[in-house]
Amino acid sequence: MTYTYTYPHLAVTTDIVIFTIRDERLQLLLIKRGLAPFQGSWALPGGFVNPEEALDACARRELEEETGLADIFLEQLYTFGRPDRDPRERVITVAYYALIPSNKLALYAASDAEAVGWFDAEALPVLAFDHKEIVTVALERLRAKLDYSTLAFQFLPDTFTLSDLQRVYEIILGEAIDKRNFRKWVLALDQIEETGALRQGSHRPAKLYRMKEPGSVEIIK
Amino acid sequence: MTYTYTYPHLAVTTDIVIFTIRDERLQLLLIKRGLAPFQGSWALPGGFVNPEEALDACARRELEEETGLADIFLEQLYTFGRPDRDPRERVITVAYYALIPSNKLALYAASDAEAVGWFDAEALPVLAFDHKEIVTVALERLRAKLDYSTLAFQFLPDTFTLSDLQRVYEIILGEAIDKRNFRKWVLALDQIEETGALRQGSHRPAKLYRMKEPGSVEIIK
DNA sequence: TCAAAAGTGTTGGCTGTACACCCATGG
DNA sequence: CCATGGGTGTACAGCCAACACTTTTGA
Protein backbone atom coordinates (compact mmCIF):
# COMPACT_ATOMS: atom_id res chain seq x y z
CA MET A 1 0.00 0.00 0.00
CA THR A 2 1.18 3.48 -0.84
CA TYR A 3 0.08 6.95 0.12
CA THR A 4 0.12 9.72 -2.44
CA TYR A 5 -0.28 13.43 -1.87
CA THR A 6 -0.12 16.49 -4.11
CA TYR A 7 2.16 18.37 -1.73
CA PRO A 8 4.75 17.26 0.82
CA HIS A 9 3.67 15.49 3.98
CA LEU A 10 5.82 14.53 6.93
CA ALA A 11 6.26 11.46 9.03
CA VAL A 12 4.97 12.25 12.51
CA THR A 13 5.65 10.25 15.64
CA THR A 14 5.01 10.59 19.33
CA ASP A 15 7.76 9.70 21.80
CA ILE A 16 7.16 9.39 25.51
CA VAL A 17 9.38 9.96 28.49
CA ILE A 18 7.88 7.63 31.08
CA PHE A 19 9.04 8.53 34.58
CA THR A 20 8.68 6.63 37.79
CA ILE A 21 10.27 6.46 41.21
CA ARG A 22 11.99 3.12 41.62
CA ASP A 23 14.69 2.02 44.07
CA GLU A 24 14.67 5.51 45.59
CA ARG A 25 15.64 6.98 42.23
CA LEU A 26 13.94 8.90 39.46
CA GLN A 27 13.95 6.47 36.57
CA LEU A 28 12.60 6.36 33.05
CA LEU A 29 11.69 3.69 30.59
CA LEU A 30 13.81 2.93 27.53
CA ILE A 31 13.48 0.30 24.87
CA LYS A 32 16.29 -1.36 23.02
CA ARG A 33 15.65 -0.85 19.33
CA GLY A 34 15.11 -4.02 17.35
CA LEU A 35 15.26 -2.35 13.95
CA ALA A 36 17.47 0.08 12.06
CA PRO A 37 18.28 2.89 12.41
CA PHE A 38 20.08 2.78 15.73
CA GLN A 39 19.43 -0.96 15.98
CA GLY A 40 20.55 -2.13 19.40
CA SER A 41 20.56 1.39 20.85
CA TRP A 42 18.35 2.48 23.71
CA ALA A 43 15.56 4.86 22.80
CA LEU A 44 12.37 6.40 24.13
CA PRO A 45 9.22 4.43 23.38
CA GLY A 46 7.24 5.92 20.54
CA GLY A 47 5.73 5.35 17.17
CA PHE A 48 4.04 6.77 14.15
CA VAL A 49 0.79 8.66 14.41
CA ASN A 50 -2.05 7.04 12.56
CA PRO A 51 -4.00 9.25 10.16
CA GLU A 52 -7.21 9.15 12.20
CA GLU A 53 -5.64 9.26 15.61
CA ALA A 54 -5.35 12.24 17.97
CA LEU A 55 -1.83 13.00 19.15
CA ASP A 56 -2.73 12.36 22.78
CA ALA A 57 -4.38 9.10 21.83
CA CYS A 58 -1.28 8.00 19.99
CA ALA A 59 0.95 8.74 22.95
CA ARG A 60 -1.47 6.98 25.27
CA ARG A 61 -1.55 3.96 23.00
CA GLU A 62 2.25 3.74 22.98
CA LEU A 63 2.28 4.13 26.74
CA GLU A 64 -0.17 1.31 27.18
CA GLU A 65 1.71 -0.92 24.74
CA GLU A 66 4.90 -0.56 26.73
CA THR A 67 3.56 -0.61 30.26
CA GLY A 68 0.09 -2.12 30.09
CA LEU A 69 -1.20 0.89 32.00
CA ALA A 70 -4.13 3.19 31.31
CA ASP A 71 -5.32 6.21 33.36
CA ILE A 72 -1.83 7.55 33.73
CA PHE A 73 -0.83 11.20 33.91
CA LEU A 74 0.29 12.22 30.43
CA GLU A 75 1.13 15.68 29.12
CA GLN A 76 2.50 17.05 25.88
CA LEU A 77 6.08 18.23 26.32
CA TYR A 78 7.43 19.80 23.14
CA THR A 79 7.64 19.10 19.43
CA PHE A 80 11.05 18.28 17.99
CA GLY A 81 11.54 18.66 14.28
CA ARG A 82 15.15 19.20 13.24
CA PRO A 83 15.27 18.06 9.62
CA ASP A 84 18.20 15.71 10.26
CA ARG A 85 17.01 14.15 13.49
CA ASP A 86 16.17 10.87 11.78
CA PRO A 87 18.65 9.51 9.22
CA ARG A 88 15.93 7.85 7.11
CA GLU A 89 13.78 10.82 6.28
CA ARG A 90 12.30 13.91 7.83
CA VAL A 91 10.38 12.87 10.96
CA ILE A 92 8.93 15.24 13.48
CA THR A 93 8.04 13.98 16.91
CA VAL A 94 5.54 15.31 19.37
CA ALA A 95 7.09 14.39 22.71
CA TYR A 96 5.01 13.59 25.79
CA TYR A 97 5.88 12.69 29.35
CA ALA A 98 4.05 10.39 31.72
CA LEU A 99 4.31 9.69 35.44
CA ILE A 100 3.79 6.15 36.74
CA PRO A 101 2.95 5.52 40.40
CA SER A 102 5.52 3.20 41.93
CA ASN A 103 2.93 0.60 42.87
CA LYS A 104 1.81 0.10 39.28
CA LEU A 105 5.21 -0.94 38.06
CA ALA A 106 4.90 -4.12 36.11
CA LEU A 107 6.69 -4.31 32.88
CA TYR A 108 6.53 -6.54 29.88
CA ALA A 109 8.54 -6.33 26.70
CA ALA A 110 6.70 -4.96 23.69
CA SER A 111 6.64 -6.71 20.37
CA ASP A 112 8.85 -4.39 18.37
CA ALA A 113 11.58 -4.06 20.97
CA GLU A 114 14.23 -6.54 21.94
CA ALA A 115 14.26 -5.37 25.50
CA VAL A 116 12.80 -2.80 27.85
CA GLY A 117 14.36 -1.36 30.94
CA TRP A 118 14.25 1.29 33.63
CA PHE A 119 17.25 3.60 33.91
CA ASP A 120 18.27 6.26 36.39
CA ALA A 121 17.42 9.63 34.88
CA GLU A 122 20.90 10.80 35.87
CA ALA A 123 22.75 7.82 34.41
CA LEU A 124 21.33 7.13 31.00
CA PRO A 125 23.06 5.17 28.27
CA VAL A 126 23.70 6.80 24.91
CA LEU A 127 20.32 7.30 23.27
CA ALA A 128 19.14 7.05 19.67
CA PHE A 129 18.10 10.07 17.59
CA ASP A 130 17.80 13.29 19.62
CA HIS A 131 16.25 11.48 22.55
CA LYS A 132 18.87 12.80 24.95
CA GLU A 133 17.64 16.29 24.25
CA ILE A 134 14.02 15.23 24.75
CA VAL A 135 14.88 13.74 28.13
CA THR A 136 16.68 16.91 29.15
CA VAL A 137 13.64 19.02 28.35
CA ALA A 138 11.38 16.57 30.17
CA LEU A 139 13.53 16.71 33.31
CA GLU A 140 13.49 20.49 33.27
CA ARG A 141 9.72 20.52 32.93
CA LEU A 142 9.25 17.94 35.67
CA ARG A 143 11.45 19.82 38.16
CA ALA A 144 9.88 23.17 37.30
CA LYS A 145 6.37 21.82 37.77
CA LEU A 146 7.14 20.43 41.20
CA ASP A 147 7.35 24.00 42.44
CA TYR A 148 4.07 25.28 41.13
CA SER A 149 1.77 22.28 40.77
CA THR A 150 0.75 19.08 42.46
CA LEU A 151 2.39 17.01 39.74
CA ALA A 152 4.48 15.00 42.18
CA PHE A 153 1.37 13.40 43.65
CA GLN A 154 1.03 11.41 40.43
CA PHE A 155 4.01 9.27 41.42
CA LEU A 156 2.13 7.92 44.43
CA PRO A 157 -0.51 5.22 44.89
CA ASP A 158 -4.05 6.11 45.95
CA THR A 159 -2.99 6.25 49.57
CA PHE A 160 0.37 7.33 50.84
CA THR A 161 2.10 8.83 53.83
CA LEU A 162 3.53 12.30 54.13
CA SER A 163 6.98 10.75 54.26
CA ASP A 164 6.31 9.00 50.95
CA LEU A 165 5.40 12.31 49.39
CA GLN A 166 8.40 14.07 50.85
CA ARG A 167 10.65 11.36 49.51
CA VAL A 168 9.32 11.95 45.98
CA TYR A 169 10.22 15.62 46.19
CA GLU A 170 13.64 14.89 47.62
CA ILE A 171 14.46 12.32 44.98
CA ILE A 172 13.45 14.49 42.04
CA LEU A 173 14.94 17.71 43.33
CA GLY A 174 18.02 15.92 44.64
CA GLU A 175 18.09 17.75 47.96
CA ALA A 176 16.90 17.25 51.50
CA ILE A 177 13.75 19.04 52.68
CA ASP A 178 12.90 19.99 56.25
CA LYS A 179 10.22 17.62 57.51
CA ARG A 180 8.19 20.07 59.59
CA ASN A 181 8.18 22.76 56.93
CA PHE A 182 7.24 20.27 54.24
CA ARG A 183 4.29 18.97 56.20
CA LYS A 184 3.05 22.45 56.99
CA TRP A 185 3.29 23.38 53.32
CA VAL A 186 1.63 20.31 51.88
CA LEU A 187 -1.25 20.35 54.34
CA ALA A 188 -1.83 24.04 53.66
CA LEU A 189 -2.31 23.20 49.97
CA ASP A 190 -5.60 21.60 50.97
CA GLN A 191 -5.22 18.93 48.31
CA ILE A 192 -5.02 15.82 50.49
CA GLU A 193 -6.95 14.38 53.42
CA GLU A 194 -6.43 11.65 56.00
CA THR A 195 -7.99 8.30 55.19
CA GLY A 196 -8.15 7.39 58.86
CA ALA A 197 -6.07 4.29 58.25
CA LEU A 198 -2.49 3.74 59.29
CA ARG A 199 0.39 2.00 57.60
CA GLN A 200 2.18 -0.53 59.78
CA GLY A 201 5.92 -1.09 59.64
CA SER A 202 8.68 -2.03 62.01
CA HIS A 203 8.32 1.33 63.71
CA ARG A 204 5.65 3.83 64.57
CA PRO A 205 2.66 3.55 62.15
CA ALA A 206 2.14 6.45 59.76
CA LYS A 207 -1.14 8.14 58.87
CA LEU A 208 -2.31 7.42 55.35
CA TYR A 209 -3.55 10.23 53.13
CA ARG A 210 -5.38 10.38 49.83
CA MET A 211 -5.77 13.13 47.23
CA LYS A 212 -9.08 14.97 47.44
CA GLU A 213 -9.23 14.91 43.63
CA PRO A 214 -7.26 11.88 42.51
CA GLY A 215 -5.58 12.32 39.17
CA SER A 216 -5.92 16.09 39.08
CA VAL A 217 -2.85 18.28 38.82
CA GLU A 218 -3.48 21.71 40.30
CA ILE A 219 -1.47 24.83 39.69
CA ILE A 220 -0.60 26.20 43.09
CA LYS A 221 0.60 29.56 44.39
CA MET B 1 4.14 16.94 -8.77
CA THR B 2 3.12 14.23 -6.35
CA TYR B 3 4.61 12.80 -3.20
CA THR B 4 4.38 9.08 -2.54
CA TYR B 5 5.15 7.24 0.67
CA THR B 6 4.89 3.62 1.75
CA TYR B 7 3.15 4.52 5.00
CA PRO B 8 0.91 7.41 6.05
CA HIS B 9 2.34 10.89 6.38
CA LEU B 10 0.62 13.97 7.72
CA ALA B 11 0.26 17.53 6.60
CA VAL B 12 2.12 19.71 9.09
CA THR B 13 1.78 23.44 9.49
CA THR B 14 2.99 26.10 11.83
CA ASP B 15 0.61 28.80 13.02
CA ILE B 16 1.72 31.89 14.87
CA VAL B 17 0.05 34.07 17.44
CA ILE B 18 1.74 37.42 16.91
CA PHE B 19 1.20 39.72 19.86
CA THR B 20 1.91 43.38 20.21
CA ILE B 21 0.84 46.32 22.33
CA ARG B 22 -1.04 48.80 20.20
CA ASP B 23 -3.41 51.59 21.18
CA GLU B 24 -2.90 50.68 24.83
CA ARG B 25 -4.26 47.21 24.17
CA LEU B 26 -2.85 43.74 23.79
CA GLN B 27 -3.48 42.92 20.15
CA LEU B 28 -2.71 40.10 17.79
CA LEU B 29 -2.38 39.71 14.07
CA LEU B 30 -5.00 37.91 11.98
CA ILE B 31 -5.29 37.37 8.29
CA LYS B 32 -8.45 37.12 6.29
CA ARG B 33 -8.33 33.84 4.45
CA GLY B 34 -8.36 34.17 0.68
CA LEU B 35 -8.89 30.47 -0.01
CA ALA B 36 -11.18 27.68 1.13
CA PRO B 37 -11.70 26.31 3.68
CA PHE B 38 -12.99 29.13 5.85
CA GLN B 39 -12.59 31.55 2.94
CA GLY B 40 -13.26 35.06 4.20
CA SER B 41 -12.78 34.07 7.84
CA TRP B 42 -10.08 35.49 10.07
CA ALA B 43 -7.30 33.11 10.99
CA LEU B 44 -3.84 33.01 12.48
CA PRO B 45 -0.99 33.37 10.00
CA GLY B 46 0.62 30.06 9.20
CA GLY B 47 1.54 27.64 6.51
CA PHE B 48 2.88 24.26 5.58
CA VAL B 49 6.26 23.07 6.75
CA ASN B 50 8.66 22.39 3.92
CA PRO B 51 10.39 19.00 3.94
CA GLU B 52 13.84 20.41 4.61
CA GLU B 53 12.83 23.17 6.96
CA ALA B 54 13.13 23.24 10.75
CA LEU B 55 9.89 23.99 12.58
CA ASP B 56 11.29 27.18 14.10
CA ALA B 57 12.52 28.27 10.70
CA CYS B 58 9.10 27.73 9.21
CA ALA B 59 7.42 29.79 11.92
CA ARG B 60 10.03 32.51 11.52
CA ARG B 61 9.51 32.54 7.77
CA GLU B 62 5.75 32.95 8.18
CA LEU B 63 6.33 35.69 10.72
CA GLU B 64 8.60 37.55 8.37
CA GLU B 65 6.21 37.13 5.44
CA GLU B 66 3.38 38.72 7.41
CA THR B 67 5.25 41.43 9.26
CA GLY B 68 8.53 41.96 7.43
CA LEU B 69 10.32 41.55 10.75
CA ALA B 70 13.28 39.38 11.72
CA ASP B 71 14.99 39.08 15.12
CA ILE B 72 11.71 38.82 16.94
CA PHE B 73 11.03 36.81 20.08
CA LEU B 74 9.45 33.53 18.99
CA GLU B 75 8.70 30.46 21.08
CA GLN B 76 6.96 27.17 20.44
CA LEU B 77 3.59 27.07 22.16
CA TYR B 78 1.90 23.70 21.74
CA THR B 79 1.07 21.22 19.01
CA PHE B 80 -2.57 20.83 18.03
CA GLY B 81 -3.58 17.69 16.21
CA ARG B 82 -7.24 16.82 16.57
CA PRO B 83 -8.02 14.64 13.54
CA ASP B 84 -10.99 16.81 12.51
CA ARG B 85 -9.43 20.23 13.03
CA ASP B 86 -9.12 20.80 9.28
CA PRO B 87 -12.06 19.80 7.07
CA ARG B 88 -9.83 18.94 4.09
CA GLU B 89 -7.62 16.31 5.61
CA ARG B 90 -5.71 15.56 8.75
CA VAL B 91 -3.40 18.50 9.50
CA ILE B 92 -1.39 18.95 12.63
CA THR B 93 -0.10 22.36 13.54
CA VAL B 94 2.84 23.32 15.67
CA ALA B 95 1.75 26.64 17.15
CA TYR B 96 4.21 29.40 18.03
CA TYR B 97 3.83 32.81 19.56
CA ALA B 98 5.81 35.96 18.89
CA LEU B 99 6.08 39.34 20.56
CA ILE B 100 6.52 42.47 18.47
CA PRO B 101 7.88 45.70 19.99
CA SER B 102 5.40 48.51 19.47
CA ASN B 103 7.91 50.62 17.57
CA LYS B 104 8.42 48.00 14.88
CA LEU B 105 4.81 47.93 13.84
CA ALA B 106 4.57 48.31 10.12
CA LEU B 107 2.30 46.04 8.33
CA TYR B 108 1.83 45.02 4.76
CA ALA B 109 -0.59 42.49 3.36
CA ALA B 110 0.87 39.15 2.39
CA SER B 111 0.30 37.56 -0.97
CA ASP B 112 -2.00 34.74 0.05
CA ALA B 113 -4.27 36.81 2.26
CA GLU B 114 -6.94 39.27 1.24
CA ALA B 115 -6.36 41.35 4.32
CA VAL B 116 -4.37 41.56 7.50
CA GLY B 117 -5.35 43.25 10.71
CA TRP B 118 -4.63 43.75 14.38
CA PHE B 119 -7.36 42.80 16.83
CA ASP B 120 -7.78 43.21 20.56
CA ALA B 121 -6.92 39.93 22.19
CA GLU B 122 -10.10 40.26 24.23
CA ALA B 123 -12.39 41.05 21.31
CA LEU B 124 -11.56 38.66 18.51
CA PRO B 125 -13.84 37.83 15.61
CA VAL B 126 -14.86 34.23 15.01
CA LEU B 127 -11.74 32.37 13.92
CA ALA B 128 -11.15 29.59 11.41
CA PHE B 129 -10.20 26.03 12.41
CA ASP B 130 -9.35 25.65 16.10
CA HIS B 131 -7.52 28.96 16.17
CA LYS B 132 -9.64 30.25 19.04
CA GLU B 133 -8.25 27.48 21.20
CA ILE B 134 -4.70 28.26 20.10
CA VAL B 135 -5.13 31.90 21.04
CA THR B 136 -6.52 30.91 24.44
CA VAL B 137 -3.49 28.77 25.16
CA ALA B 138 -1.16 31.53 23.96
CA LEU B 139 -2.80 34.08 26.25
CA GLU B 140 -2.47 31.75 29.22
CA ARG B 141 1.19 31.19 28.45
CA LEU B 142 1.87 34.89 27.98
CA ARG B 143 0.23 35.87 31.27
CA ALA B 144 1.91 33.05 33.17
CA LYS B 145 5.33 33.99 31.84
CA LEU B 146 4.98 37.60 32.89
CA ASP B 147 5.23 36.43 36.49
CA TYR B 148 8.36 34.36 36.23
CA SER B 149 10.34 35.71 33.30
CA THR B 150 11.37 38.93 31.61
CA LEU B 151 9.18 38.14 28.60
CA ALA B 152 7.33 41.45 28.79
CA PHE B 153 10.50 43.36 27.92
CA GLN B 154 10.20 41.99 24.38
CA PHE B 155 7.26 44.30 23.74
CA LEU B 156 9.47 47.35 24.16
CA PRO B 157 11.94 49.17 21.89
CA ASP B 158 15.66 49.18 22.69
CA THR B 159 15.20 52.03 25.09
CA PHE B 160 12.16 52.64 27.22
CA THR B 161 11.03 54.26 30.44
CA LEU B 162 9.91 52.48 33.58
CA SER B 163 6.42 53.80 32.93
CA ASP B 164 6.45 52.18 29.49
CA LEU B 165 7.33 48.86 31.05
CA GLN B 166 4.74 49.18 33.78
CA ARG B 167 2.12 49.95 31.16
CA VAL B 168 2.93 46.68 29.33
CA TYR B 169 2.34 44.71 32.52
CA GLU B 170 -0.87 46.54 33.30
CA ILE B 171 -2.27 46.06 29.82
CA ILE B 172 -1.55 42.35 29.66
CA LEU B 173 -2.60 41.54 33.21
CA GLY B 174 -5.56 43.89 33.03
CA GLU B 175 -4.97 45.43 36.45
CA ALA B 176 -3.28 48.45 37.96
CA ILE B 177 0.12 48.06 39.60
CA ASP B 178 1.57 50.25 42.33
CA LYS B 179 4.22 52.45 40.78
CA ARG B 180 6.73 52.46 43.64
CA ASN B 181 6.52 48.73 44.21
CA PHE B 182 6.85 48.02 40.50
CA ARG B 183 9.98 50.15 40.19
CA LYS B 184 11.56 48.56 43.23
CA TRP B 185 10.83 45.11 41.83
CA VAL B 186 12.01 45.71 38.29
CA LEU B 187 15.24 47.39 39.33
CA ALA B 188 15.98 44.57 41.77
CA LEU B 189 15.83 42.13 38.85
CA ASP B 190 19.11 43.64 37.68
CA GLN B 191 18.12 43.18 34.05
CA ILE B 192 18.02 46.80 32.91
CA GLU B 193 20.29 49.83 33.21
CA GLU B 194 19.97 53.56 32.65
CA THR B 195 21.12 54.81 29.27
CA GLY B 196 21.81 58.27 30.71
CA ALA B 197 19.44 59.83 28.20
CA LEU B 198 16.03 61.29 28.92
CA ARG B 199 12.81 61.23 26.99
CA GLN B 200 11.17 64.64 26.55
CA GLY B 201 7.45 65.17 26.62
CA SER B 202 5.03 67.81 27.72
CA HIS B 203 5.94 67.11 31.32
CA ARG B 204 8.93 66.07 33.38
CA PRO B 205 11.43 64.09 31.24
CA ALA B 206 11.76 60.39 32.04
CA LYS B 207 14.96 58.38 32.37
CA LEU B 208 15.51 55.94 29.53
CA TYR B 209 16.59 52.39 30.28
CA ARG B 210 17.90 49.54 28.15
CA MET B 211 18.08 45.79 28.74
CA LYS B 212 21.50 44.59 29.81
CA GLU B 213 21.08 41.60 27.49
CA PRO B 214 18.74 42.72 24.73
CA GLY B 215 16.60 39.93 23.35
CA SER B 216 17.21 37.54 26.23
CA VAL B 217 14.30 36.26 28.27
CA GLU B 218 15.41 35.30 31.76
CA ILE B 219 13.57 33.08 34.19
CA ILE B 220 13.32 35.04 37.41
CA LYS B 221 12.53 34.27 41.04
C1' DT C 1 15.49 -1.72 75.43
C1' DC C 2 16.88 -0.50 71.08
C1' DA C 3 16.37 0.92 66.30
C1' DA C 4 13.64 3.16 63.02
C1' DA C 5 10.57 6.26 61.28
C1' DA C 6 6.45 9.42 62.72
C1' DG C 7 5.02 13.35 64.52
C1' DT C 8 5.00 18.11 66.37
C1' DG C 9 5.86 24.68 67.28
C1' DT C 10 8.30 28.67 67.73
C1' DT C 11 11.10 32.48 66.30
C1' DG C 12 13.56 35.81 63.47
C1' DG C 13 14.37 37.52 59.04
C1' DC C 14 12.88 38.74 54.80
C1' DT C 15 9.75 39.85 51.26
C1' DG C 16 5.69 41.81 49.54
C1' DT C 17 2.14 45.31 49.97
C1' DA C 18 -0.12 49.45 51.09
C1' DC C 19 0.12 54.16 50.85
C1' DA C 20 0.89 60.19 49.35
C1' DC C 21 3.50 63.85 48.11
C1' DC C 22 6.94 66.74 45.50
C1' DC C 23 9.42 67.49 40.92
C1' DA C 24 10.45 68.91 36.14
C1' DT C 25 8.82 70.22 31.97
C1' DG C 26 5.89 72.31 28.05
C1' DG C 27 2.23 74.95 26.90
C1' DC D 1 0.87 78.84 36.69
C1' DC D 2 -1.28 74.83 35.47
C1' DA D 3 -1.58 70.18 33.69
C1' DT D 4 0.86 66.02 33.01
C1' DG D 5 3.40 62.30 33.99
C1' DG D 6 8.09 61.25 36.68
C1' DG D 7 10.11 60.10 40.68
C1' DT D 8 10.75 58.74 45.61
C1' DG D 9 10.54 55.86 51.29
C1' DT D 10 8.49 53.74 55.18
C1' DA D 11 5.92 50.62 58.10
C1' DC D 12 3.34 46.62 58.86
C1' DA D 13 1.98 41.93 57.93
C1' DG D 14 2.40 37.52 56.30
C1' DC D 15 5.43 34.01 54.67
C1' DC D 16 9.49 31.17 54.70
C1' DA D 17 13.52 29.00 56.77
C1' DA D 18 15.97 27.25 60.54
C1' DC D 19 15.92 24.30 64.22
C1' DA D 20 15.46 19.24 68.16
C1' DC D 21 13.05 16.39 70.79
C1' DT D 22 9.25 12.98 71.97
C1' DT D 23 6.24 9.08 70.40
C1' DT D 24 5.03 4.59 68.76
C1' DT D 25 5.90 0.36 67.12
C1' DG D 26 8.35 -4.33 66.03
C1' DA D 27 12.19 -7.00 66.78
Structure described in brief:
The structure is a homodimer of 221-residue chains. With 221 residues, the first copy, chain A, is of the alpha+beta class.
Q: Structural class given helices, strands, pairing of chain A?
A: alpha+beta
The rounded distance between the terminal residues' Cα atoms of chain A is 53 Å
User: Largest chain-chain contact?
Assistant: A-B, 29 and 29 residues
Oligomer: homodimer
- Helix count of chain A equals 4
Uncertain residue segments of chain A: none
Report mean pLDDT of chain A, rounded to a whole number. Answer: 94
| Residues in helix, % of chain A | 10-25%
Report the count of strand segments of chain A. Answer: 11
- Kindly estimate the percentage of residues of chain A that lie in beta strands according to DSSP: 25-35%
Main sheet record of chain A? 7 strands, mixed
Q: Choose one word for the global shape of chain A.
A: elongated
Order of helices and strands of chain A: EEEEEHEEEHEHHEE
Radius of gyration of chain A over alpha carbons? 19 Å
Structure description:
Chain A is α+β, with helices and mostly antiparallel strands. Chain A has 4 helices and 11 strands; from the N terminus they run βββββαβββαβααββ. In chain A, strands 2, 3, 4, 5, 6, 7 and 8 form a 7-stranded mixed β-sheet that branches. Chain A has a 3-stranded antiparallel β-sheet with strand order 9-11-10. In chain A, strand 2 (11-22) and strand 3 (25-33) form a beta hairpin. Strand 1 of chain A pairs antiparallel with strand 1 (3-5) of chain B. The structure holds a DNA duplex (27 and 27 nucleotides).
